[in-house]
Design brief:
The structure holds 2 protein chains of 2 kinds. Chain A has strands at 4-7, 10-14, 19-25, 32-37, 44-49, 55-58, 61-65, 71-76, 85-92, 100-102, 106-111. By secondary structure, chain A is mostly beta strands. By secondary structure, chain B is mainly β. In chain B, the strands form 2 sheets. In chain B, strands 2, 4, 5, 6, 9, 10 and 11 form a 7-stranded mixed sheet that branches. The chains are: A mainly beta, B mainly beta. Chains A and B meet through strand 5, strand 9 and strand 10 of A and strand 5, strand 9 and strand 10 of B.
Chain lengths: 112, 116
């Protein structure tokens, strides 16, 4: 079945550093979404991408929809302590536009 | 706050008891989803409603699980005869179709279930 692999699995960075993470799949996706989840809370939508090659920003966050449609990247610039959390990529499965699968997550810890 | 809401936020129950969770979607959203998330994993799809119709159920949803959305607004998820393996975060999401390709789902805060 479809799977989304995220890397790195976890990362520790210093406050102020830029962060890059990615999400890859063996199959094509028509939409990529990036969510952030804090402990004990639901995922919060950060960025949605709908077209191959699309580059979209949301404040300090920038995400790109890979040209091959099999990957996506999320960058966070000038990280701050509240960026800590788990970042998930997600996309609709081929069996239905409504059914998302989620990646394995990237756990980010920011050291002040 | 006009986001997705879920109630309760936390539920502790004994094995064998029944539990019911409620989800109130964003008011104009006609699509509603339930997901389950275990520790260290991403959310996994359970079921999907369009208005009051339940259009898909995952194989993860055993016969002990039932979901309803009687008037096309709020939804309930009931687990009968709970088992320890049911312990997880149950997430609700809603969406309204805006794009030709897919829609964008917004999640609630989740209900954390612990089965003792």
């Amino acid at each position: 079945g479809q799977q989304l692999n995220q890397s790195p699995q976890s990362m520790f960075i210093q406050e102020g550093e830029d962060v890059s993470m990615n999400c890859t799949s063996s199959s094509i996706f028509n939409t990529w979404l990036w969510y952030k989840q804090d402990p004990g809370e639901g995922p919060v939508l950060l960025i949605a991408l709908y077209k191959a090659g699309e580059l979209t920003s949301n404040g300090r966050l920038t995400a790109q929809f890979g040209i091959t449609r099999k990957d996506s990247f999320l960058n966070i610039s000038a990280s701050i302590p509240s960026d800590v959390g788990i970042y998930f990529c997600a996309g609709p499965t081929t069996s239905g536009t409504y059914k998302y699968i989620f990646g394995t997550g990237t756990r980010l810890k920011v050291l002040a | 706050d006009t986001g997705v809401s879920q109630d309760p936020r936390h539920k502790i129950t004994k094995r064998g008891q029944n539990v019911t969770f409620r989800c109130d979607p964003i008011s104009e959203h006609n699509r509603l989803y339930w997901y389950r998330q275990t520790l260290g994993q991403g959310p996994e799809f359970l079921t999907y409603f369009q208005n009051e119709a339940q259009l898909e159920k995952s194989r993860l949803l055993s016969d002990r699980f039932s979901a309803e959305r009687p008037k096309g607004s709020f939804s309930t998820l009931e687990i009968q005869r709970t088992e320890q393996g049911d312990s997880a975060m149950y997430l609700c999401a809603s969406s309204v179709r805006r794009q030709a390709i897919t829609d964008t789902q917004y999640f609630g805060p989740g209900t954390r279930l612990t089965v003792l």
